[in-house]
Design a protein that fits this description.
With 867 residues, this protein is of the alpha+beta class. It contains 21 helices and 28 strands. The strands form 8 sheets. Strands 1-28-25-24 form a 4-stranded antiparallel beta sheet, with no helix packed on it. It has a 4-stranded antiparallel beta sheet with strand order 2-3-6-7, with no helix packed on it. It has a 4-stranded antiparallel beta sheet with strand order 8-9-10-11, with no helix packed on it. A hairpin with a 2-residue loop joins strand 24 and strand 25. The protein is elongated and about 100 Å long. The protein starts with a helix and ends in an 8-residue tail after the last helix.
């Protein structure tokens, strides 16, 4: 009766706070205040580097980086006062210039092997690669690498192109240089649709040009190349038909051996600086270009030509949508016609290079027959979100509620390890089930799953849903042992079944994994909050760690469970708020949302291929099954939750509650990812061009959601994080106290163990904070994939130990230790020499440890009696 009254008091307490949150939510939904309405973001910052040491300037120059210096060489111009309209002749150059510092001066450091311009250049390792081009004698197939070091120039020859090509485009994908289109001769009647590649990493004797699939559509010259996520892109260009030009807007991507047609550009961008700028992980920026509008009248306009387009276009490789961004710098003086070099113009027929954090556009053509010596330099600008007063109100209410729950629980806690670790075994089954769900649903899920669905589709959903299949195995095979033995740490079972050495090994593996995981799940939301409010990332990490440590210290597992219940509500509410916001922003609501996502193949549930390296269906099933089995059979964080209930029957209900709740929750989070894809297709200019794919949901929260709704979703991020952090900290404190402290101090009283567990929680909070700050200093691209890899490598073999103990009787301690070591070695070997999917690491770890332990038991004698 006392337990029921206590549960009711907690329920009433949560109910009152739910009413407060409900009132805030009603207020929030009535305030359609969008941050986008107040933002005029600037993503590009322009400046000019020292001008090239030539009064006229060049178009068609080669540009690249060698040993830290920016190199610009070759190109062509019309000497001062000469134009095609007064009989002037174009002149080609071989001069090579170097700029060693952005505020330095250009040095004339040598010459190219010949006069040359209008080819392809790229920076590779310590040199500038130059391919093709033209000069007064015609077009060239020559290729070479220019290296600059300590004021000296060295030239390394490369195999020549299979045919002469100029006005072509190209870019490096890793070590492979791709060349696309161009014309073989000055009087060519048609352009090439050929594509060639050369692997520069091969030995000089083995380097050769490979013919790739031809570019679909008409042959083209003066196109723009680009590289993003390991794929080669070709945009726009000029087609020739009997020598007559037509300006193209089509776009293509080369993935492996095949070209894919992409969305057309809004306007032609022929001869724009190439390659395009690869911004973030999903954007290519194209600067200016010739749209062909004034091409027919160029001879008539002559020096009165107004110049080329200054529009910057962005292409998102995930949404396949173009957006108009900002403009290139333009500053035309009153005497721009007579003195073009006194003004700043958009440029065409020039290359680009990335150098010292700048995207450099050297020289170029500012109007027909007119060059410039100016060197434009762009730096990306990362925008921060705006956190408004109503957002603060919602987040502060969440934090106050979290602390309040821990205070209420601590007042009723008796000060025993049973209360601190198991909540006195009086936690209701539904609360334990929600706590398990909240624990496994970390910020990795809240942020990275929508990002994965946004970038790909729903194939990873099957992995999440495998808990429904795993739950009966846990309930009928593992749970009875854990409950019957009345253990506190799940690893105590291993001492009973095998030996103390096996228990200590498993406990140590668990602690290493959890400390690493703790850093990751603190880092992710801190990154979100930092970008939202402009607060230093380290401060955000410290605040998150502090608040979580406080309520873990005060209330133990019971505070953790009840805050988990509240946090699950906030977490799912935040995700649903984002989903509904996107749906209501569309005229057709959810029908339109899922219809467009389906048309874009974003709702694909399974890939029926047979690959071992891709997320195909069988990989999702096998990897998902064993990944969930590892978590629910050998992870103290989860097992401890279903040990807090009063009976085995209630523990079963808690496991099934979590499993069933995973279905709608997973659909919600994958739905958010698809919704983001649809939203940013309709609002292509709203996405951060410099962002990582993992940042797409935080960016949406910070910049697109109305004030208050954003605060609710951020509270959801905190909820996901703090639920996982608190669970990890309490479980680690449980393992350290139960599995290590009791051995070091066997006669210690329960009160001493209780105090030790509390202060261990504080120490773990500090350690998690430090690990998170370390992770923040690394350049990670996908936290999700790294997390799965850790689970497989550290957790899989641990799950194999439990399987060996549960399913067989003849595998003994020495055999299972040998099997564990052998399976860890096997896993690391497989990781190094194969490309199997990350999800399969858990399967290899579990099955490998079980099989190798069984084999070892046949070879190694058991010196201890089976318990």
């Amino acid at each position: 009766m006392m337990i029921k009254r206590y549960d009711k008091s907690i329920g009433r307490f949560l109910g009152r706070w739910a009413q407060v949150v409900g009132v805030i939510a009603v207020m929030v939904t009535g305030l359609q205040v969008s941050r986008a309405a107040h933002d005029h973001p600037q993503y590009l910052q322009w400046q000019q580097l020292p001008a090239l040491p030539d009064k006229v300037g060049f178009a068609g120059s080669f540009a690249g980086v060698s040993n830290g210096a920016l190199l610009v060489g070759g190109g062509a111009n019309f000497p001062a006062g000469q134009t095609p309209w007064n009989g002037g002749a174009k002149r080609w150059y071989a001069d090579l210039f170097a700029l060693e510092q952005p505020d330095g001066e250009w040095k004339r450091v040598g010459q190219l092997p010949r006069n040359l311009g209008y080819g392809v250049s790229a920076s590779w390792r310590d040199g500038m690669v130059c391919v093709g081009g033209s000069n007064a004698e015609g077009h060239s197939a020559v290729a070479f690498i220019v290296r600059y070091q300590q004021g000296q120039i060295a030239i390394e020859e490369l195999p020549s192109l299979p045919e002469p090509l100029a006005n072509t485009s190209g870019a490096l994908v890793g070590d492979v240089l791709y060349i696309a289109g161009g014309i073989p001769a000055p009087d060519a009647k048609s352009a090439s649709n050929g594509c060639w590649s050369i692997d520069l990493a091969e030995s000089p004797d083995n380097r050769h040009w490979r013919q790739e699939a031809p570019i679909p559509g008409p042959g083209r010259m003066l196109s723009v190349a680009g590289v993003q996520n390991g794929a080669f892109y070709v945009f726009s260009g000029v087609a020739l038909e009997d020598g007559q030009r037509s300006y193209l807007t089509d776009a293509y991507r080369l993935d492996g051996l095949e070209w894919t047609r992409l969305s057309d550009l809004p306007a032609p961008v022929a001869a724009a600086p190439t390659p395009a700028y690869a911004a973030g992980q999903a954007t290519l920026l194209v600067f200016g270009g010739d749209d062909g509008t004034l091409a027919p009248g160029a001879a008539t306009l002559q020096s009165r030509h107004p110049g080329f387009s200054d529009q910057v276009w962005s292409y998102n490789v995930v949404t396949d949508v173009w957006a108009a961004r900002e403009s290139m710098p333009v500053d035309k003086k009153p005497d721009a016609i007579e003195n073009p070099n006194g003004s700043t113009w958009p440029v065409v027929t020039t290359t680009s290079a990335n150098w010292n954090g700048y995207f450099v556009i050297p020289g170029g053509e500012v109007r027909p027959a007119t060059r410039t010596p100016r060197v434009l330099a762009m730096q990306p600008v990362q925008q921060k979100g705006v956190f408004l007063a109503l957002d603060w109100l919602v987040v502060i209410a969440y934090f106050l509620l979290t602390i309040a729950i821990s205070v209420v629980v601590s007042r009723k806690m008796s000060g025993t390890t049973s209360e601190f670790f198991l909540g006195g075994s009086k936690i209701p089954w539904w609360a334990a089930g929600l706590s398990i769900f909240g624990t496994t649903l970390s910020a990795l899920t809240f942020i990275a799953v929508p990002a994965k669905a946004y970038a790909t589709n729903w194939t990873y959903l099957v992995n999440n849903l495998m808990i429904v299949v795993v739950a009966p195995f846990i309930v009928y095979l593992y749970l009875p042992y854990f409950r019957k033995l009345k253990i506190v740490s799940v690893y105590e079972y291993l001492e009973i079944r095998f030996s103390r050495s096996v228990k200590l090994l498993a406990s140590a593996v668990f602690l290493v994994f959890q400390i690493s995981r703790l850093g990751v799940v603190i880092y992710l939301p801190a990154l979100v909050v930092s970008s939202l409010m402009g607060v230093d990332l380290v401060y955000c990490i410290a605040i998150t760690s502090l608040v979580t440590t406080v309520y873990c210290f005060l209330g133990g597992i019971e505070a953790v469970v009840w805050t988990d219940v509240m946090q699950v509500i906030v977490l799912l509410g935040g995700a649903m708020a984002a989903l509904f916001y996107v749906a209501f922003s569309l005229d057709g609501g959810f029908i339109q949302l899922f219809s467009e996502a389906s048309e874009g193949h974003k709702l694909v549930l399974a890939d029926l291929g047979n690959s071992i390296a891709e997320p195909v269906l069988w990989v999702m099933i096998v990897g998902g099954f064993f990944g969930q089995l590892v978590t629910y059979s050998s992870d103290q964080v989860v097992v401890q939750r279903y040990l807090t209930t009063a009976t085995e029957q209630k523990a079963r209900k808690s496991i099934y509650t979590n499993a069933l709740l995973t279905i709608p929750a997973s659909i919600i989070f994958f739905g958010v990812g698809s919704a983001l894809w649809v939203y940013f297709r309709h609002n292509p200019g709203a996405i951060d061009p410099h962002g990582r794919i993992d940042d797409v949901f935080p960016w949406f929260i910070a910049h697109e959601l109305p004030s208050g709704v954003s605060g609710l979703v951020i509270a959801g991020v905190f909820a996901a994080t703090m639920s996982t952090i608190s669970s990890s900290m309490n479980s680690m404190a449980t393992v350290i106290t139960t599995d290590f402290y009791k051995i070091l101090k066997p006669g210690g009283q329960d009160k001493e163990q209780f105090r030790f567990a509390r202060w261990t929680t504080v120490a773990l909070g500090i350690i998690g904070c430090v690990v998170s700050i370390y992770i923040a200093s690394l350049n990670n691209t996908s936290i999700w994939d790294q997390y799965i890899a850790i689970i497989g490598l550290l957790g899989g073999c641990l799950g194999g130990i439990f399987m060996a103990g549960i399913l067989t009787k003849h595998i003994h301690a020495r055999a299972v230790l040998s099997g564990f070591i052998a399976s860890v070695t096997l896993l690391f070997f497989i990781k190094q020499v194969t490309s199997i999917h990350l999800l399969l690491y858990a399967a290899v770890g579990v099955l490998g440890c079980f099989a190798l332990s069984w084999l070892a038991s046949l070879i190694i004698p058991d010196k201890a009696k089976y318990k």
